[in-house]
Amino acid sequence: SFYGRVFPKKSLHFVHSSSSLHWLSQVPSGLDINSKTPLNKGKLYISKSSPQSVLDAYSVQFQKDFSSFLRCRSQEIVEGGLMVLAFMGRSSSDPTTEESCYQWELLARALMTMVSEGLIEEEKVDSFNAPYYAPSPEEVKLEIEKEGSFILERLEAYEVDWDGGAADVEIMGGGTVAKLSRGQKVAKTIRAVVESMLEAHFGKDAVIMDDLF
């Protein structure tokens, strides 16, 4: 895990982490599948309906993991070395904002629809919580300052175009070319990222995964 030591001491001049640090080392404590009462019922991540304890659990886990990452890299980088980190975040201080959790909300709604159709068990949805957190710039800055090993030289935020921008085409059977709708492109993007996690929890049923996405 990159939340532990990876390289020899003082061996790196430059570190680049891309699209990784929004993944937590584990599901936040208290939200895992061993909990008797699901705190985040019917949801996969932080949402508008999540209790404050869920928001706090995710925030604490991010602080713990990011601090550990910084501490471990500080031991591996030479004095004066540089680090560039790119990962998902949010511009708002509110962790329930749509920019932070809308994709997880879409997945939760789709899964709960499948529950109502008898395709999956509700307990399976209640016991899944994504090991993911999109921090705000303030949270990132605060953790860097608290850990103390690095000086933040620059922080920039970029919007992600979930549907890929320009029109995409897909090669179908027989060489037929079909244009993908915006919804199809978003679904394929999300599926490419989270399908393996969902399969590990809900089972490797290709029909269920196809229906979900």
CATH class of the largest domain: Alpha Beta
Structural class computed from helices and strand pairing:
alpha+beta
Helix amount: 40-55%
Strand order of the largest sheet: 1-2
The DSSP helix count reads: 6
What's the CATH topology name of the largest domain? Rossmann fold
| Number of domain units | 2
Give me the CATH superfamily of the largest domain.
Vaccinia Virus protein VP39
Radius of gyration over all CA atoms, rounded: 19 Å
The N- and C-terminal alpha carbons lie at a distance of: 29 Å
Order of helices and strands: EHEHHHEEHH
CATH architectural grouping of the largest domain? 3-Layer(aba) Sandwich
Overall mean pLDDT = 90
Task: Tell me the β content.
Answer: 5-15%
Q: Describe the largest sheet.
A: 2 strands, parallel
Structural shape? globular
The total of beta strands comes to 4
In the predicted model, the low-confidence regions spanning at least 5 consecutive residues are none
